[in-house]
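Re-running D-alanyl-D-alanine carboxypeptidase/D-alanyl-D-alanine-endopeptidase to confirm reproducibility after the cluster update. Everything else is unchanged from the original entry.
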Amino acid sequence: MPQKSSCIFLLIFFSIHIGINQQLAKAQTSTPTAPICPAQLKTTIDAVTNRPLFSRVRWGILVQNLGSNQTLYSQDAHKYFIPASNTKLLTTAAALQQLGENYRFRTSIYRGSNNFLYVVGRGDPSLTDAQLRILAKQLKQKGITQIQQLVVDDRYIRGDLVPSSWQWEDIYSDYGAPVSSVILNQNTFSFNLLPQTLGKPALISWTDANEAKQWRVINQSVTVAQNQPNSINVTRELSGNVLRIQGQLAANSQPYLVTLPVVDPNYYFLRRFRSALAAEKITLGRTSVGIYANNQQEVAEVAAVLSPPLSQLLIEINQNSNNLYAEAILRALAIKKPPLPNQATADTALEVLKTTLTQMGVNSTGYALVDGSGLSRKNLISPEALVQTLQAMANSPQASIFRASLPVAGVNGTLKNRFQNTPAAKIVQAKTGTLTGAISLSGYINPPKYGPLVFSIIVNQTDQPASIVRKAIDEIVVSLAQLQRCQ
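Result of re-run:
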């Protein structure tokens, strides 16, 4: 599944099953600890990819010297693979090139001549309740204590809230939250499940009382004896705002956090903003979703907040593999499509992305994207295209910003718990990717006895647990980290 997953499924037998497979993997693999020469690289990598347990697996691998484009190892590097979150490398590279490291999203509130207030969101994925409180304080400082009508203008980002190719299980999980003009709290809401006495359903504790009113909850959970495994499943009905809670919660459990995507981002924003205004003693009448009346003669911006700069947003995308941030950043590229559009769509943004990458030297036939996050199974990228992107960014003025956004092996992000106590620790900066049947890792390595490398490894069509595939990928990367120059 994607890097950021919701707390919906927790089944103890999964842990047991994975534990058994990890023991099997340890028996079948060994992490090399000796330096290797470039001439040994093919034999070393082939020994991993040709193992019997990978006999039906597709491997795509490309390893090059950084800067020279000299290929040290290649296996089906020009062929298409489902890249998972390695897609984010292309999205963030294009965004950094086109928008610049200091680009910020702006969320504005305008006052029209009719005294209505208009919220104009521009797809800021970092907006939280804290920024709503700032906006409310700004309005209070302008002497606004009463709002007749507050309108959310949602024209900026158009098209489907979620890509049509995302799977059903994804769009009902927090990592598949909708992308919209106004994004608040990453367009998710949360509640806790608390155990009660034996046999009774888990108690629901909402973090937002207003959100509780939006749902009809069918609670079929049960509290079981202490030290029993937690197994909670929360689903949304196909139609209507219905939540169904099933499974069991142990009597001695800590609060069980459930995070889900909101159904309507605009009205979720309006509900939360009403609370922020009330805290400043600003009364609010009607709320609606409509069009900012920019044809009025007297229009003034009365409040605004800015996102952190793009350089910081990229860290959230690449280190934590945040899908919503990636999709919002992708759509921001649409403003670079001449003539300047009034609307940002994913299709327009993908055109800008392709044009940008082509200018950087990335072959446009090496990939076919339908989203910016990699959550879609319809994305196709070759290891060659990923390496071309990494090579281009290493030679760009934004090289240090781009590198800083990537996880560091054994240190942070999605690589924090990988490569610890190995020769690859701290010298690998790479983007992870995980979908069912698709595992990827692409980035940079700086072997101390050889020199900097760029690599891409993608595994598709695997029925092996992700933990076993990752172990094999990591074994290859550790070998690369020990590369040395030989006579």
